[in-house]
Design a protein that fits this description.
The complex is a heterodimer of chains A (250) and B (486). With 250 residues, chain A is of the alpha/beta class. Helix content of chain A is 36%, strand content 28%. Chain A contains seven helices and twelve strands. In chain A, strands 6-9-10-3-11-12 form a six-stranded mixed β-sheet, with helices on both faces. The chains are: A alpha/beta (250), B alpha/beta (486).
Chain lengths: 250, 486
C-alpha cells in the first residue's frame, strides 16, 4: 500500500529525515518507535503533506501513485488519515459541520453522493456511541476546550467517519489514561481489516498491547535503525534506545 | 515569511469585487459643488416644508464653519488625501424616479440592477418575509410590501415620502438622536441628505416582516447622503437590515449617512448592516469613503437596541453605531465583523452611554485583517453619575492573515458611578498554518479551510443576522477571502 524509499525531509532548513525506507502492506500494523527528535512525527507530517516539512529526496508511493506530488487534501481524500498528536482547535466551527465538509469532499472525489446534514448526523452519532464519546462534543467547536482525552477520542471519531485505508496515528497514546487508551485502541483495532494499514508512531510499548503490530521499526537520527517484529518493541522497553542501537552497531 | 504564508497573502490580494458594474440610466444631477443654492435646490426638488429647509440651512452653515476652520475629525486611525467637498455632486437620481407606486413605472434597467444584486423587486420573485426599500443614488425608487405593512399600522417608506405624509413624526424625531451639530459628517448629511428609509412601528406592534433597504451608488462623482429614521413606539418590535454596493471607479466616492433609532418603553429595534461598498483596487485606488454616524436612543424603560454589522467593503470605514441608554433597564448591543484586505482601512466600534438605572450593554467586535488592511476597534463605554448598576461586557477579537496587515484595539472606559461593572476582553490571533493543514488533512482545500476558519471566527456575530441574510454574509466573507484563481 505504502512504499517509502530514501525519504529525506527538512524543517526550517534542518535535515530531519535522512533516508527513510518503509514498506507497509494492506492488513499490516507498523509501529514506529524512537527517541525524541529521531524524526517520527516528521515522517508522519511529511507523508501527510504538512507545509514546512519539505521533502528533499526519495519517494513515497501510495498504491503506486506518487504521494508527494499531491496536495494534502488529495492525500486525505485518497485514504491517508493522520491522527494528530496535538489536535488543532478551530474556534466557532462546529465539529459535525467541519467533519461533514471533509467527508463530503472525500465522497465527491470518489464520485459518490454527498450526505445531507440529517444523514450525516445519524452516521456521526452512531460512531460517537461506539467510541463512548459524549455526543454533545460533536456540536461544539472543533477541539475547543476539549480535554486531552476528548481530543484523542475526537481524532478516532473522525477516522471512523472518514474510513481511511492508511491510518497514521501520531502518539495517539500521549495524554491518555489507561482506560481511555484501551477504549481508543480497541476502537481503532475494530476499524482495522485486511484492506487497511496502520502506522503507529509511539514512544511507548504499552499501546502495542491493544494494537498488535506486525512490524516494529526503531527510528534513530532520521533513519530506520532497526526493524523487526513485536519482540523488538519489548527489547526497546527493556534496554532503551541507546543500548539497543549500540548493540546493533549503528 | 514561509511560502505557505506568502500564498495565503497572495490569495487574499487577488479576490475580486463582484458588484462593480454600472447601470446605464439617464440621471438628473446637480453640478459638483456645495453652496446654499444646492441645499435650497435639493429641498425644493423634494417639495419640503419650510422648517426642514431651515434645518438644512442651519446644518449647512455649521458645516461651512467647521470646514473653514478645518475642523475635520482627525482622531481616527485612517489616512487619506483631503476630500474635496466642492468636487462632489450632492444630488443624482434616475430621471422621473420620484417615489413610484407601481413597478411598471420603474426603469427596467434599474429593476435589472437590483435583480443582479440579488434583490428582486418584482412581487413574485421577492424574498418572502422581507420588505425592501430600494435606494438608487439619491432617491428611493421603490418600496415593497407597503400595503401588507399598512395593515399593521407600520409605516415603511422613503424619508422624502415620510416628510410629505407624516410630517409630525419626522419633525418630532429627525435630528433628535444625531443633531446636525453632532460631528463634521453629520452636519454635511443634515444639509444635503437626499433620501433614506423611514420606519414607524405603532405601540404594541411586532413588525411582521423584516424591513430592508438596499443602497446602490451608481452615478459618477456623486456622493450618497442618506438619512434613515426608525421609531419603535411603546412595546413595538422591528428588525431592519441594510445592504449596499457601488461600481468600481478610480476616484473615491463619499458616503456620509446618518441613521437614527428611537426605542420607547419596552420597544426593541434590531438593526443589521451588510456593507459591501466598492473597496478600491489592490493598490488602494478608488473605493468608497464610508463616513457614517449611526446612533440609537433607548428612550424608554426596558427598551433594547442592537446593532449588528458585517463590514466587508469600502476603502475607508469610519463608523460607530452607538446606543444612548437613557431608559431605566434598557439594553444596548453591538455585534461587529469588520474585514479589511488589500489597502482597506476601518476604524469602527461603538459608544455605549449609560444614563438610566440598571442599564446594560454588550459589545462583541471581530476584526479580520488581511493583505495590507488596517483594522481598528474604537469603543467608548461611558457610565454617567446617575446610572446605578450599569453593566457592560466588551469582547474584541482580531484575526490576522499574513504579516503586512494591522489590528488595533482602542477601548475607552469612563465610569462615573461606583456601582458600574465594566468588563473588557481582547485577543489577537492568526489564521495558523496548523489550522489550515488540519482542515486539509480532513479533505478540505486550502481555500475552503480559510473560509471555514474565518467563518468560525465571525460565527458569534453572523448568527445574529436574520436568517435570510446570514447566508449572504457568509458568502460575502467567502468571496472576500477566496482567491479568484485556483
Amino acid at each position: 500500500m505504502l512504499e517509502v524509499r530514501g525519504l529525506r525531509a527538512e524543517v526550517n532548513g534542518v535535515e530531519i529525515l535522512k533516508g527513510v525506507d518503509l514498506s507497509v502492506g494492506a492488513g499490516e500494523t507498523h509501529a514506529i518507535m524512537g527517541p525524541n527528535g529521531s524524526g517520527k512525527s516528521t515522517l508522519a507530517f511529511a507523508l501527510a503533506g504538512r507545509p514546512g516539512y519539505e521533502v528533499t529526496g526519495g519517494e513515497a508511493l501510495f498504491d503506486g501513485e506518487d504521494l508527494l506530488a499531491l496536495p494534502p487534501e488529495e492525500r486525505a481524500r485518497k485514504g491517508l488519515f493522520l491522527s494528530f498528536q496535538h489536535p488543532v482547535e478551530i474556534p466557532g466551527v462546529r465539529m459535525d459541520r467541519f467533519l461533514r465538509a471533509g467527508y463530503n469532499e472525500t465522497r465527491k472525489s470518489k464520485g459518490e453522493a454527498e450526505l445531507d446534514p440529517l444523514q450525516f448526523d445519524r452516521l456521526i452519532r452512531g460512531k460517537a456511541k461506539s467510541f463512548r464519546m459524549d455526543p454533545a462534543l460533536i456540536k461544539r467547536s472543533v477541539n475547543e476546550g476539549f480535554s486531552g482525552g476528548e481530543k484523542k477520542r475526537n481524532e478516532a471519531l473522525q477516522m471512523a467517519a472518514l474510513e481511511p485505508r492508511l491510518r497514521i496515528l501520531d502518539e495517539i497514546d500521549s495524554g491518555l489514561d489507561v482506560d481511555a487508551l484501551r477504549e481508543i485502541a480497541e476502537g481503532v483495532a475494530e476499524m482495522s481489516g485486511p484492506d487497511t494499514a496502520t502506522i503507529l508512531v509511539t514512544h511507548y510499548e504499552r499501546i502495542l498491547a491493544y494494537l498488535e503490530p506486525t512490524h516494529v521499526h526503531v527510528l534513530m537520527d532520521g533513519r530506520v535503525a532497526r526493524s523487526g517484529g513485536r519482540e523488538l518493541a519489548r527489547e526497546v522497553e527493556e534496554r532503551g534506545y541507546d543500548r539497543l542501537t549500540a548493540g546493533a552497531g549503528v | 515569511m514561509t511560502t505557505a504564508t506568502n500564498r495565503a497573502v497572495r490569495e487574499l490580494a487577488e479576490q475580486s469585487y463582484q458588484y462593480g458594474w454600472t447601470t446605464d440610466v439617464e440621471e438628473e444631477s446637480v453640478p459638483p459643488g456645495l453652496n446654499e443654492d444646492i441645499v435650497r435646490w435639493i429641498s425644493a426638488r423634494k417639495g419640503e416644508p419650510e422648517w426642514l429647509l431651515e434645518w438644512r440651512l442651519r446644518a449647512f452653515r455649521h458645516f461651512m464653519t467647521l470646514l473653514d476652520d478645518a475642523r475635520l475629525p482627525a482622531w481616527a486611525n485612517v489616512s487619506h488625501p483631503p476630500v474635496d467637498f466642492q468636487a462632489i455632486r450632492y444630488y443624482a437620481a434616475p430621471k422621473a424616479a420620484a417615489e413610484l407606486s407601481s413597478l411598471d413605472e420603474v426603469d427596467s434597467e434599474i429593476l435589472r440592477t437590483y435583480e443582479k444584486l440579488g434583490i428582486p423587486l418584482e412581487e413574485q420573485k421577492r424574498l418572502s418575509g422581507v420588505a425592501v426599500d430600494a435606494i438608487f443614488d439619491s432617491v428611493s425608487v421603490m418600496t415593497t410590501a407597503k400595503e401588507t405593512l399598512a395593515k399593521y399600522g407600520v409605516i415603511f417608506s422613503s424619508v422624502s415620502a415620510a416628510v410629505q405624509e407624516h410630517p409630525d413624526l419626522v419633525r418630532k424625531y429627525l435630528g433628535s438622536v444625531v443633531p446636525y451639530s453632532d460631528n463634521f459628517y453629520a452636519a454635511l448629511n443634515a444639509a444635503v441628505f437626499s433620501d433614506g428609509s423611514f420606519v414607524y412601528i405603532p405601540p404594541g406592534v411586532r413588525c411582521p416582516l423584516e424591513l430592508s433597504t438596499y443602497f446602490r451608488i451608481n452615478a459618477q462623482e456623486s456622493g450618497q447622503f442618506e438619512r434613515t429614521l426608525i421609531i419603535a413606539d411603546k412595546g413595538a418590535y422591528a428588525s431592519y437590515l441594510e445592504g449596499c454596493s457601488a461600481p468600481m471607479r478610480d476616484e473615491n466616492q463619499l458616503h456620509a449617512a446618518v441613521v437614527e433609532l428611537v426605542a420607547l418603553d419596552d420597544a426593541e429595534i434590531k438593526y443589521a448592516t451588510i456593507q459591501n461598498w466598492y473597496p478600491g483596487d489592490e493598490n488602494g485606488k478608488g473605493g468608497i469613503y464610508n463616513f457614517v454616524t449611526k446612533r440609537g436612543k433607548c428612550a424608554g424603560a426596558r427598551s433594547r437596541i442592537s446593532w449588528t454589522q458585517v463590514e466587508t467593503g469600502s476603502a475607508i470605514t469610519w463608523k460607530y453605531p452607538s446606543v444612548i441608554l437613557q431608559g431605566d433597564g434598557s439594553t444596548g448591543e453591538f455585534y461587529s465583523v469588520a474585514l479589511t484586505k488589500g489597502r482597506q482601512q476601518a476604524d469602527t466600534g461603538t459608544k455605549m452611554t449609560h444614563i438610566g438605572k440598571n442599564t446594560s450593554s454588550r459589545i462583541i467586535s471581530k476584526g479580520i485583517s488581511a493583505g495590507r488592511g488596517n483594522n481598528t476597534y474604537r469603543g467608548l463605554v461611558k457610565v454617567l453619575p446617575n446610572a446605578e448598576n450599569a453593566v457592560n461586557y466588551t469582547q474584541c477579537d482580531s484575526l490576522l492573515i499574513g504579516d503586512q496587515c494591522g489590528a488595533h484595539t482602542v477601548p475607552y472606559i469612563e465610569a462615573q458611578n461606583r456601582s458600574a461593572s465594566v468588563e473588557h476582553e481582547a485577543s489577537t490571533t492568526r489564521v495558523s498554518e496548523d489550522q489550515i493543514f488540519y482542515c486539509q488533512q480532513r479533505g478540505l482545500t486550502r481555500e475552503a479551510a480559510q473560509s471555514v476558519i474565518v467563518n468560525g471566527f465571525v460565527r458569534e456575530v453572523v448568527k445574529r443576522l436574520p436568517l435570510e441574510f446570514s447566508v449572504e454574509a457568509d458568502r460575502l466573507l467567502e468571496v472576500n477571502l477566496e482567491g479568484t484563481v485556483g
